[in-house]
Design a protein that fits this description.
By secondary structure, the chain is mostly beta strands. It has 1 helix and 13 strands. The longest helix is centred in the middle third of the chain and has 7 residues.
């Protein structure tokens, strides 16, 4: 429908790895990063490959389940490729992804910032898989260790303030005071 997903490729030496920054896909002015350790993509191939990152707005429409919401307008598809452009499907160990988010997106999703998670959607099981995630609330960053490449997004646990109340006020009203009841035998009058 006329939408072109943001897409960026970063070059990496397959066996030596490196820190990749995706400036064209910045969130809130901060670029996502992927730190590929030595030998994570290959133990023997010294050629140069690429790691593609593409924004994926379709992920934002996939419900992460009870008590969770998707954060932001896009997910991200991350695909490493060898020198011939073929996808690399197996990695050794884990790769660290640093994904920025905005306070506005957290508020709009109605989730607790401290409970954000980096997650991938499994199209076969139709479920979200979360990864060990550190939330840096001062810099609005998620730092996650991933064991495979896929389509990823940020999800969060619904905050208590947003459950059952649009205003977030969960305070019970004060008990009434100076209330007098009177009865004439057929009705009760409260003053």
């Amino acid at each position: 429908s006329g939408f072109t997903a943001a897409n960026q490729s970063e070059t990496v030496a397959l066996s030596s790895g490196g820190l990749l920054k995706y400036k064209d896909i910045a969130v809130g002015g901060t670029s996502p990063e992927i730190n590929v350790p030595k030998n994570a993509l290959s133990t023997s191939d010294s050629s140069t490959g690429k790691v593609d990152m593409k924004s994926d707005p379709a992920l934002a429409g996939i419900d992460p389940g009870a008590d969770s919401n998707f954060v932001g307008k896009n997910g991200f598809e991350i695909t490493p490729k060898d020198a011939n452009g073929n996808p690399i499907t197996d990695i050794t160990g884990t790769v660290t992804v640093t994904m920025p988010y905005t306070d506005a997106d957290v508020t709009a999703a109605g989730v607790a910032e401290a409970k954000l998670q980096f997650a991938s959607f499994d199209a076969t099981t139709q479920t979200w898989e979360t990864f060990p995630t550190t939330v840096d609330t001062a810099n609005n960053l998620l730092i996650a260790s991933i064991s495979h490449f896929s389509s990823f997004g940020v999800i969060g646990t619904v905050s208590a303030a947003s459950v059952g109340s649009s205003s977030g006020d969960m305070t019970a009203p004060a008990a009434p005071s100076n209330v007098k009841l009177a009865s004439d035998g057929s009705k009760v009058t409260m003053t």
